[in-house]
């Protein structure tokens, strides 16, 4: 298992596509706590803990590298999962791809999932009908 700096290094050195599968309803990242509290209170936040990550994504995508992620979530969405869906809008270049993040509910069989993209409305939606 890789951790810490080794994990981050993978995202800085990959050649073509970085894929991330997230399967937890909550990650215990204390650096997110202030932003999560603001999100739950409906307050504005500039996500200071995320700025280095966003800069790295911008640089990598300029060089033609691609990021993708699937987050498996429980339904109804937890507060943390709703926060994750909201944060994802800043990490995925939807303008170019026309595709946002994919969120797969654990309670719905794979064969019955409807994964067709929704019409862009300016609000972040997952692909199974839950709004952030």
What does this protein look like?
With 132 residues, the protein is of the alpha/beta class. It has one domain. It is built from 5 helices and 3 strands; from the N terminus they run H-E-H-H-E-H-H-E. Strands 1-2-3 form a 3-stranded parallel sheet, covered by helices on one side. Residues 109-132 have low confidence and may be disordered.
Short description:
33% of the residues lie in helices and 14% in strands. The chain has 132 residues and is α/β, with parallel strands linked by helices.
Poorly predicted ranges (pLDDT <50, ≥5 residues)?
109-132
Structural class: alpha/beta
Q: In which order are the strands of the major sheet placed?
A: 1-2-3
Rg, alpha carbons: 15 Å
Mean pLDDT metric? 75
How many domains? The number is 1
Strand count: 3
Q: State the share of residues found in helices, binned by percent.
A: 25-40%
Keywords:
132 residues, alpha/beta, 3 strands, globular
Draw up the topology in text:
Elements: H1 4-13, E1 17-22, H2 33-40, H3 51-62, E2 66-73, H4 79-88, H5 94-97, E3 102-105
